[in-house]
Structures are given as C-alpha cells and as structure tokens.
Amino acid sequence: MFSTKFTTTDDLPEPSPNLINQVIGQDEAVEIVLNAVKNKRHALLLGDPGVGKSMMVKAFGELLENSGHFTPYTIISKPNLKNTEKPMVELLEGNVIERIMPEEKPKVMRQPPSMLTLVLIMLGFILVTQFLLKGVPETQMLGIVATTTIVGTLIAFIILFLAIFGATKASMPNSISPADLKPMVLYECPKRPLVRASAYNTTKLLGDIKHCPLGGKPPIGTPPHKRVILGAIHEAHKGILYVDEIKTMPLDVQDYILTAIQDKKLAISGRNPNSSGASVETNPIPCDFTLIMSGNMDDVSNLRAPLMDRIDYKVVLKNKMDNTTENRDKLLQFIVQEIKNNNLNPMTYEACCELVKLAQLLSGSKNKLTLRLRRLSNIIKMANDIATGKELSESLNEFTKNGALDLDDNEGESDLIIEQLSQGDKEAGKLKNVVNKITGKTYKSTKKSNKSVDELRIELKARISDLNAAEGKLKDKKPIELADVERVLDTGIYSMQKQVAMDYLENFKEYKNIHPNGEPTVGVIHGLAVLGGEGLGDVTRIITKVLNAKNPKTSLLNITGDIAKHSITLASALSKKLVSDGTLPLKGKDGGTDLSEKEIYIQFSQSYSKIDGDSATAAVCLSIISSLLNIPIKQDFCITGSLDLNGDMLAIGGVNEKINAAKEYQFRRVIVPYSNYKDVINIEGIEVIPVKTLDELIPLVFDIQ
Ligand SMILES: Nc1ncnc2c1ncn2[C@@H]1O[C@H](COP(=O)(O)OP(=O)(O)OP(=O)(O)O)[C@@H](O)[C@H]1O
C-alpha cells in the first residue's frame, strides 16, 4: 500500500513545519499561484470544497512574511479642522507613533479678550506710565501722556485683532478637549500582511464610519476621525487580501474592489445611510494589495466581467489524484499532518489503509484518490474521538481487573479511603477526580473504614501512583485502530446525505418489491441509482408496458422527461436494428418495432422522488425493447450504463456505490459499462460484468429460447 512499513504513524517522520510543504496533490496550482503572488498578480482559486484553497493562501502568507524587505507602516486618522466631516487618514512608514503624537497636537487659540480686559489693560498701562513720569516737566507731560495713551490703545487693538482672527481660524470652540483633537492610530502593520475576509462582509472588506455614539456632531459626540474603521483592503496594503466565498460578494462591493485594485487607494465613508457616519468621508487611503479570491466552480457566475478581467491568474484545483504509491505516501503524509496539527492519537497501519480505500471510494474510482481532504480530516478526528472514548473504558476495565480500584463495588475499601481522606487532603481530591474521569460518574460514598488515617494515607498513595500510571498511559496515546475508522464509516456521521440515504434504505428496503431470483419477465429490469448524490446506491425496478392504441402517447411515472424521451427514441431505433439484423426475433402478434400506434408506460417503481440521469438509459431502453418485442428479461442482474445510437455502452458515475447496492439486494450479477470497470474497487460477492456494446448485452439480458 505505502512505500514504507510502519506499525503506527508514530514511526513516521514528523511533518514539515512549513505549511507550504504540507499541501498535497496540488503541486501545479501551488507553483503557479506562488509565482503570481511573488509578482504581485491577482489570482482566483476555484475548486471543490475542502481541497486546500485557504490552506494554500495561508501558506503563501507565511512564505511572504519572511521574504524580501518590508517597511512597517502605521495608518493614522487626524481631525480635519477645515472640514470636520472629512477626517484625514494618513499612512506613515516606519515606527512613527512616538514621533507623530506630540507633534501633531493641534494648537487651539484662546477666546479673544473681552472689552473690559482691554480697558483695564489700557488704564493699567496709563497708571504705570504716569508713575514712571513723576518729576517730568509739565510742558513735556501733555505730549508724553498723549503719546502713551495712543500707543496703549493701539497695542490693545492689535491684541484684540490677533485674538479674534486666530480664534476664527481655529473655528473650534474651546469646549473641545485637546484629547479629541489628537490623531488616532487605526492600524499598525509590523510585517507583510495576509488579511482574510469573507466576500459578503462589506464593512470588514471596505471599512466604515461608526455612528456617533451621542447622536450629534462633534464636539458633543466622538469626532469623526475617531470613528473611522479601516477595511481589509487597507489592512492588506503591501500584502495579500484573501477573499473567500466569492459567490456571496455583492455587486457594489465588486465595483469598490475593482476601483481599489485600479487606483490602489480607496476612501472610506459610512455605509449605513441612517447613521451619522454616512455624512463622513475620508480622503482616499492607500490599499496596494495582491488579491486572491476563492470559491467553488460555479461561483464565478456571480463575478462581474470587469473584475474577472482584472484577475490575472485563474487556477482550478484538482479534486482527485492518481492512485500511485507516491500519492498514497502523500495521503499518509496528510494523515500524519492532521494527527500532529490537531494533537490526535497516532493511527495504526491498517486504519491508514482503510482511509486510502475511502479516498478511492470518494474519488469514484479504484485508480484515483480524492483530494477533498477536509472530509478525510473530519473522519480522522472522529475516529480519534471514538478511540479516545474506548481508551477510557478500557482503562477502567484494566483497573477493575487488576484490583487497583474496585470501582463497581460501592462497599469497597477504596471508597472508604477516598471518603475519609478527601476531607482536607489534596491527594484524595485528586484521586477522586481521576476516578470520576475514568468512570464518567460523580464519586459518592457513605461508608467508614476502621483503618487508621496513616494506614489509609499509605494505601492511598500507592493507589494514586497506579492511577497516575494509568493517566500517563492515556497520555501515551493508544492508536486509532481500523475498527475506529470503520465505525465512523458505518455510522455515516461524516455525511448528512449518507445518513439520510442509510435511514431510507433501512426503513424501506424490506418493503421494496425486488426479487433477485424472479422468473424472466417482459418489460421488467433492475436499474441502479445513487441516493442523495453521494455515498449509497439503490436498486430501482423499472417496468414498461407497450400497448396497441389508436392514439399513441407516453405516460411517465416517477421519471422525468428527458431521460424517458431519450430512451424511447433510442429503444425504437435500436429495436429496429436488432430485429433487422436478426439479433432479436419478433415475437407474438403484439410484438413490433413501430411505435406510431403504441401507448407506452414507463415506471420507476417505488421511487418517490423524480429520477433523471443518463445512467438509466440502458436499463430503460432494454425494458422498452423487451416490451416492444415481447421478450422476457432475466431478473438475476442489475444494470447501470448509458447507451448511444450506435449501441455503445457509455460510462456513468458512482459505479462502486451502485455495485454495493446490487450486492446488498443479493443480486448475482451486475452489468456495468466497460469503461467504468477500471474504477471498480471491490468485486467480492458479485459478478461484475463489463460490457462495451448492445450486442454483448443481448445474451446477458434477454431470455431468448
Ligand atoms: N491539498 C491539501 N493538502 C493538505 N491538507 C489539505 C489539503 N486540502 C485540504 N486539506 C485539509 O483540509 C482542511 C480544509 O482545507 P481548506 O479550508 O484549505 O479547503 P478549501 O478548499 O479552502 O475549502 P472551502 O472551499 O470549503 O473553503 C485543511 O485545513 C487541511 O487540514
């Protein structure tokens, strides 16, 4: 199975610490996208759920973080004193916080002095001058007094003018606290960023302006520059912006992203029109990021063409890989990673092999392995949970067996020891915890012991050491075994559809009118379907009746139009061919290949949801031919496959699930298209017959005497 032999995964090498080396099966995509990111190209990753899109981007983030020179930056917002509703957001490089904060403190002018203050200043000035001028001759006095009064008045008016002019310029009343005018740090980016955002979260993606908490404009409430919320597009400046779930991206958001990609900057304004934030808008803020988007294959239909055009790389991730030894080793590497990354118990060789088989089954082919690894990861975790649960109960049995602690016996001495010492004894408390943990019960006892406390203490210590050893053993991690993995698979707890299908089969199978040992019957054949899109197959009894009638028509029961029309046309053409080349005889007076006077009824018996799909065309077609030509069909087989006009059997999906269903209903044979035979995983217990053409089908299907 694998290139190395091992007992448990503990024998295998540790996984690489670098996330990029942990991505398996997507080598080509990793190389392309890594190259794109290094060159700052935008990329779109498409693929099935759980194939590793997010994991890859996270790994790129890790790589880029340590690559090349990066100058840390800080984004701050400052009040705009000219227009408070337009705060200024700036990106400053380097470690700027201490540098900018004191410097940027805006200066607020004081209130202009009042008239009274000015008159008092003038009077004071005159008095001081007169005091200094004592002794000056009277002739000069008048001139000096006049001059000083004029000078004083002039000075007072200059002060008044400057004060009024300055205060108007500031235009901020002195009731604003200086703290409100300080710049605010919005975001510090110490290393190259990888920012993840969901496509539907507009605020997270593009930023917003908070509603003013006090409902009014500044200065009553919080000033606008303190209400700015940066978007992921701004926080991803100089790094990667990873947007997943692209299906949910609103069209207007796509336009904003497009502008951001183009201009490498985007302003933030309030997104809620009913909020006071709506009147606020910042200047355009730098956002030079590399965009990586991801989604499932059909999600692209939601993306607008102009945005799609700006995405340079569009990469589709694989959902399966070839089933080679090299790739099975990769799957093993994945199992080891999951165990290590999630701190799980090791896994045995047999359990790992079972996971490989499951990977085959989920891929739909023996020659492939699924790369929808999230599903496998979930199964590993669930098997671990089962294994861990089992460990506890096994440990419990071990203790009981060794007599280390008689947990089932409420009269047992161990109960007494615990009971007596648990009062104020830490170790007894610990013992109680361990016991409770192992039994899953809450310990309780009312008995007393006649031993001395010291004796009990010694005994207790011995038992505690036993229990500690057991606890240690729990930590030694008993491996996840084959049975644990099988249990997860049998219960189907990893898939909702599988459980619904299992439930359906369990409750319905016994009522189904299916007889694998029945006599050959005209117009009755057993087809195969996959229930709920995955996981389980089911057998469907298809019945057709062709009657002579003056007004030809077709009635379809539990079958949708296209498949039936297709099959009727095919059956008509192929039956003519089979009769004309002598492969099939025309039997009885009702037989005939001319449909122009026939009434045709086709039923998918006991199928209560509409069935459609190409894989039933061979069955329906053979059933119609049987009815048209009145030739019985053998009942010991099921068939799946699609027929074309040349009579070639074409490939279908879910071949393994269908074969299992035929086995389940105890059919002896199952007919499958030849091209699907290579996908068949398990042929035990049933004869799987690969068929290439209609001619090969005839002797297998019809009971021709
Ligand atoms: N190629 C892979 N190599 C290794 N582990 C993988 C790979 N793909 C998936 N996994 C495992 O599955 C988990 C989920 O994968 P991830 O979230 O990357 O899938 P996704 O493609 O982004 O899925 P979705 O489309 O649902 O978001 C990963 O954390 C990892 O444990």
TrEMBL record:
CDD domains hit by this protein: AAA
Membrane topology: Multi-pass membrane protein
Keyword Nucleotide-binding assigned: yes
GO MF terms, alphabetically ordered: ATP binding; ATP-dependent peptidase activity; serine-type endopeptidase activity
Subcellular location: Cell membrane; Endomembrane system
Top-level taxon of the source organism: Archaea
Domain Lon proteolytic: 519-704
Record's keyword terms, sorted: ATP-binding, Cell membrane, Hydrolase, Membrane, Nucleotide-binding, Protease, Serine protease, Transmembrane, Transmembrane helix
Keyword Mitochondrion part of the UniProt annotation: no
Segments traversing the membrane: 115-133, 139-165
InterPro entries per UniProt: Lon_arc (IPR004663), Lon_proteolytic (IPR008269), Lon_Prtase (IPR027065), P-loop_NTPase (IPR027417), Ribosomal_Su5_D2-typ_SF (IPR020568), Ribsml_uS5_D2-typ_fold_subgr (IPR014721), Sigma_54_int (IPR002078), Sigma_54_int_dom_ATP-bd_2 (IPR025943)
EC number: 3.4.21.-
List of catalytic residues: S615, K658
GO CC terms in record: endomembrane system; plasma membrane
One Pfam assignment: Sigma54_activat
GO terms under biological process: protein catabolic process; proteolysis; regulation of DNA-templated transcription
Similarity-based family: Belongs to the peptidase S16 family. Archaeal LonB subfamily.
Assembly and binders: Homohexamer. Organized in a ring with a central cavity.
PANTHER family referenced in this protein's UniProt entry, alphabetically: ATP DEPENDENT LON PROTEASE FAMILY MEMBER (PTHR10046)
Function: ATP-dependent serine protease that mediates the selective degradation of mutant and abnormal proteins as well as certain short-lived regulatory proteins. Degrades polypeptides processively.
Protein name according to UniProt: Archaeal Lon protease
Originating species: Methanococcus voltae
